Amino acid sequence: MCNRQGRVNARGLLDQHGRGIEYLRISVTDRCNFRCRYCMPVEGLPWLPKSDILSYEEIAEIVRQLAPLGLRSLRLTGGEPTIRPDLESLVRMLRDIPSVQDIALSTNGVRLPSMAHSLRAAGVNRVNMSVDSLRAERIRSIARRSLAFDPLDALKAAEEAGLAPIKLNVVVMRGVNDDEIADLAGLTLAWRWHVRFIELMPVGELGADGMNEVVPSSEVLGVVSRAHGELEECAGPGGNGPARYYRLPSAAGTIGVITPMTHSYCASCNKVRLTADGRLRTCLFGDHEVDLRTPLREGRELEQLFRKALAEKPLEHELLQLRTGGLRALSQVGG
């Protein structure tokens, strides 16, 4: 059995609350080519100096030390991970680590048409893509950037490259894109894609006012049912996320909801996050984090620091109390 200090047992590495931790989200950059209002200020942020950002070799070394303790799944995030040059070389380094079983990518999709095949060849298994709208003008409005970008082209490129399952992440905002819920859900009728509707998290510039734009998942499911028919709960695709999944009659894909505002899923949290500057963050909206970059560069072993971090991992976030652990923007930690 595992004691409260996070020793390895048959379930893997446990935190102080008995949750198995096997999933690491790795932010490879704090920069992004979008400025989505729920993720980053329109003017951007003070970017991290290059010397503070982990090199690919340093990221791979951290994973190499931690994977034997129980980590099995990795997700590359940002900012926007595809804007960091030669991302494929990092993927190859991570794929060479024997304990790593799954490598996923979170992206806005802008560079997927040109990168999907090379990422798959390097070792990425699957992709999550942010798709907050299917309308060109609205995409520009939400992203606050003028980029010639068709999300359907990006999704089709990912499918052709064999990056599967393909998950679409839709942050639903009242009065902004909630009129596209039915259209986005309808993609699952023809495509083996998994559309996940995410409740808006009022972080950064949104603040308390963002609560007015939160659309509860129950409302989202009601819109989908009225437009397309009765939803049946189902297991959904493989992965590590907290979504609950449903399927429309005869649909090829599924519909998921992620509910940080109306239903806490902290009890099943199985993840920790590595920021671009080498801090291990144990809760997205908590303030607990451990510096791994300094001891790594000093040549010290990381196992005990990792175990200590898990022994201090909080039980749940305090997002509903609008406490975000000093987080100015989701882009700082990869969401």
Give a brief description.
It is built from nine helices and 15 strands. With 335 residues, it is an alpha/beta fold. It has one domain (13-332): Aldolase class I (TIM Barrel), CATH 3.20.20.70.
Topology (SSEs and partners):
Layout (H helix, E strand, L loop, with lengths): L7 E2 L2 E3 L5 E2 L1 E5 L28 H11 L6 E5 L9 H9 L6 E6 L4 H11 L3 E5 L5 H8 L7 H11 L4 E7 L8 H10 L2 E7 L17 H12 L3 E3 L9 E4 L6 E5 L12 E4 L4 E3 L7 E3 L1 H5 L5 H9 L24
Parallel strand pairs: 4-5, 4-13, 5-6, 6-7, 7-8, 8-9, 9-12
Antiparallel strand pairs: 1-2, 2-3, 10-11, 11-12, 13-14, 14-15
Helix pairs in contact: 1-2, 3-5, 6-7
Characteristic terms for this protein:
single chain; 335 residues; TIM Barrel; three-stranded antiparallel sheet; 15 strands; 26% helix
